[in-house]
Design a protein that fits this description.
The protein is built from 1 helix and 11 strands, in the order αβββββββββββ. It is mainly β. The chain has one domain: Sandwich (Immunoglobulin-like). Strands 4, 6, 7, 9, 10 and 11 form a 6-stranded mixed sheet that branches. The chain is globular. 20% of the residues are buried.
Length: 166
Amino acid sequence: MESFFKKEYAIAIALVFSLFAYSQQTITITLMVDTQSFNPETPLASCSLKAEYSRSGEVLEAWDNLENFTVPATVDDNIVWEGMSTSSGRTRVDIAKIQGENDSRIFRKRTNYGRLTEVNPHKVVESKILYSTKDKPDYKYSIYFNINNGRDTFKIDPKIKVGTKN
């Protein structure tokens, strides 16, 4: 009888952990830069954005009007921002930082800095969503990036709309 309860207890714990694992997803927001034709005077003209959802496989893309690109998300989702060159595999596009630009707050910190990871050959920013934007403006933020560790940093201002879990 005791082993029956141990099995039931183990199954209950496994279900709880699987619910938590399923409830969060990773949204990877990729800043794609045509580094070959990049003009520092008009950085948006050479950029596009793509958001990929780990759970559904859904992909959102924006080739123009990047500052109105809005990514839907939920509390507890992980967001990863990464950069890539669309014209050269050897050119690095580093995400220097992500900084909130309005009063909506979804992350622990207003500014999240890029860092190198073992799986990315360039700087990325990772952060977990803690707060919803329900009844608030969408989270407006800036992506600061540079190319090949250059001194110049460029900026794009998209948005994230955070709902709550059902």
